[in-house]
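Please check both lines for our workbook:

___
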Amino acid sequence: MRSAVPTLLIALVAAAPATRAQDLDATQLRGRQVFAQSCGVCHLQPSLGVKTYGPALNKASTGGNDELMRAFIENGSERMPAFKHYLKRAEIDAIIAYLRTVPMKQGEAR
């Protein structure tokens, strides 16, 4: 039996916020991939309309403050696990670079 992980990954990347791949540099593309793999289960809206655990993330998340975003990713919060022992600094930087390309959806609060 084949693993469902590749199919799930493709579905998560397809559900990623609308940022066209051709508009992203290599770091941002890597960030989109790591985000889908490590953060998508909580922060990407499933295609079936199920509510996510965490908020949708975009360029306005953490008020656009990259250091605050890094602190959340590394240290977690009451509702989010810490990723400092799971993700490398370059991967966290790539996630932040990617999220800064994701536009806010119309009607979305900052």
Remarks:
- The chain is about 45% helix and 0% strand.
